[in-house]
Amino acid sequence: TMHKSKGLEAEVVVILETDEGGIPKTHPDTSLYGVFGETEEVAMDDQKRLFYVAMTRATEKTIMVSEKGKISRFVKEIAGNLGGEVAEMVLD
User: By the 8 A CB rule, do 55 and 86 touch?
Assistant: First the structure.
């Protein structure tokens, strides 16, 4: 899991479900954040840090898998900030 990847490395890392709604993973009822003493912004920042950890475990290549045409804007933002690019490959 992304949580367990901290401190580990691998030549290739595959991250599944990087589509909109999969990453970042949020609860549809954002009013629940207040119940736990958290804001939506804090929760998003936590998700970004977690995803960054997962993305940076690869020493050679990171592969992200998403549903065709639905790659998360969150993924694109982070990849762009890291100087990478998002390429789409469709498998039949």
Answer: no
